[in-house]
Task: structure prediction
Amino acid sequence: MAKISFYGGWIDLKSLNKEDKKNYKLSMLFFLLGAFCWGIHLSGTDIGLLASNNKNITSTTFTLVRVSIVVLWLIAVMYYMKFYKAQDELFKRYQEYTLSWGALSFIALGLFISLLSPYFAFNPSFYEFFLAFVVGAIIGGYRFHKEYLS
Result:
């Protein structure tokens, strides 16, 4: 079973059995490969240091990269679900707790950001709202650690 460490921030890989460790590592590998493809996708838009006006963002290369993102992340989810199903109720509660706090933060901070954005000439995008989710998930992990593990 996964041991939750660093104040609810991550899990200790040494605590996993061989099969769970394999599934977790493969899940993270495919997620990372998909994130790399996501970076290539972003380099073809007006975001990032590699942005250029002469790129054809609807080319076959960019289409293959976008399809790769979806396929790699689906494989990552498949391996993560294998890992998740083998865990105990405490880990599943931890997962639900962090995701709930992330969703709550997505809504609360996202609403706050979107209501204030016209006053600061700021157009929030997916990334600002995702950052709000991440902040909430971190808070949720810490609160879970404080409530259940310490």
The CA atoms of residues 111 and 129 lie 9 Å apart. The chain has a mean pLDDT of 88. The radius of gyration is 18 Å.
